[in-house]
């Protein structure tokens, strides 16, 4: 008895509806997995909270903010960015788990839109990131942090954070498709810390050795940190380099560059996975 497969839709609109429906199905699958693993979700949400409490209360008294101002208001926008960075490791782990268990290969043999798996993963991670950002916003408010800018400026800052997360999601998806074992995932998650700390998130690059400060300034994360501080009207670091003076512009350009590079890499890697 032959297996009858459903006829693939013809026409651009029908294919678009097909892709959206399949992408929604994969997204719902990802959200169901999050609901069935509350321990993983809670630990992922609480880790940034622990970090901000540790730096805000244990180390904050010894920190000096360039130009004056409270260290907690200086810190919180940096921790928003770090939360977006930590989410990349979760993307790597989820994609690698599906690939190594054969789930991704099974999806590729099914009559579903080729984009559904990657888009569904991306949407799931973005929803999780919004939740994590909301939790950290609440913690920041309880610690005395405030967004002093206008509502439009605050929403723009949130948009920049989510734009960064969107770009890092595609970096994570690509790396997850490359991973062949837990060792690689551990390496990626470990590298999040030096990459995240080598920024202006916790201290001003001016306090670092010259060459290290230059690296911190040109770290794409630093642009988002500086831009969100400016939009929130929180204390920041006014560097005199070109990259520091154009932080908001670069907070848009850096994520776009990362997306342009890693989105096609992820799609190509997915298409050429061994079944």
Automatic annotation (TrEMBL):
UniProt-listed InterPro entries: ABC2_TM (IPR013525), ABC2_TM_bact-type (IPR047817), ABC_2_transport (IPR000412), Nod_factor_ABC_transporter (IPR051784)
Organism: Streptomyces albidoflavus
Domain ABC transmembrane type-2: 39-273
Subcellular location, principal: membrane
Signal peptide range in chain numbering: none
Family in the record: Belongs to the ABC-2 integral membrane protein family.
Membrane topology: Multi-pass membrane protein
TM annotation in the entry: 16-34, 41-62, 74-97, 118-145, 157-179, 191-212, 243-267
Superkingdom of this protein's organism: Bacteria
UniProt-annotated location(s): Cell membrane; Membrane
PANTHER family: NODULATION PROTEIN J
Keywords linked to the UniProt accession: Antibiotic resistance, Cell membrane, Membrane, Transmembrane, Transmembrane helix, Transport
Name of the protein this chain belongs to: Transport permease protein
Origin organism lineage: Bacteria, Bacillati, Actinomycetota, Actinomycetes, Kitasatosporales
